[in-house]
């Protein structure tokens, strides 16, 4: 992008970040009826996770409205969620309580056995892998042209549970929250970390202003100093 395009993207991202505060409030505190009446949304291919006899690992990116994405989808299908434990036990309790408006139960990324059991029982499990969890259990994959450490958990979960992999894409279009479910693999065919990462990148490129660029995705590959210099 040229400087003018970058400036426009930066402005759009700031606007989306501000709106995400309200999106989170809607996701955590509004009733199902109020959401249905006041928030237009459309889900494509819902049958992928409602008519499946196998567990579904639902990969989704860190959009700025991901809490709302999960709540809207959770109103239509039974979901379970995996996330990072907050450093503050008090904040973790608040976040977990809010997220359980969308999902039946949650597990931290360290509680691997819990979400393995969910997948083996045929449940739908939400997991966002587009964060920097360090070098351990990760491999370098090109992400926006940068060799970036990416966790390989999705591959291992498929090998252990024979689950399907579904990608959740989401974006706002003319005031409507659109959610598209796309089957990446099924019938014991492994979706590689590279394949999943490329799908996430492709989704971000279409709506870059709605992505959570604030988190340090490249800290293990470019170093923390990169973000200090970027300021």
Describe the SSE topology.
Layout: H1 3-29, H2 32-38, E1 41-44, H3 47-50, E2 56-60, H4 66-74, E3 79-83, H5 89-99, E4 105-108, H6 112-120, E5 124-127, E6 138-143, E7 146-151, H7 153-161, E8 164-173, E9 176-185, H8 193-206, H9 219-222, H10 225-230
Parallel strand pairs: 1-9, 2-5, 2-8, 3-4, 3-5
Antiparallel strand pairs: 6-7, 8-9
Helix pairs in contact: 1-4
Describe this structure in words.
The chain is of the alpha/beta class. The chain has one domain (3-230). Helix content is 43%, strand content 23%. It has helices at 3-29, 32-38, 47-50, 66-74, 89-99, 112-120, 153-161, 193-206, 219-222, 225-230, and strands at 41-44, 56-60, 79-83, 105-108, 124-127, 138-143, 146-151, 164-173, 176-185. The strands form 2 sheets. Strands 1-9-8-2-5-3-4 form a 7-stranded mixed β-sheet, sandwiched between helices. It is globular and about 50 Å long. The mean pLDDT is 93.
In the predicted model, the low-confidence regions spanning at least 5 consecutive residues are none
**Termini distance?**
18 Å
Structural class, please? alpha/beta
Count of separate structural domains: 1
Helical segment tally?
10
Mean pLDDT rating:
93
Spatial order of strands in the largest sheet: 1-9-8-2-5-3-4
| Helical content (DSSP H or I, runs of 4+) | 40-55%
Largest sheet: 7 strands, mixed
What best-fitting shape do the alpha-carbon axes yield?
Answer: globular
| SSE ordering | HHEHEHEHEHEEEHEEHHH
- Compute the number of strand runs: 9
Q: Specify Rg, calculated over alpha carbons.
A: 17 Å
* Percentage of β-strand residues: 15-25%
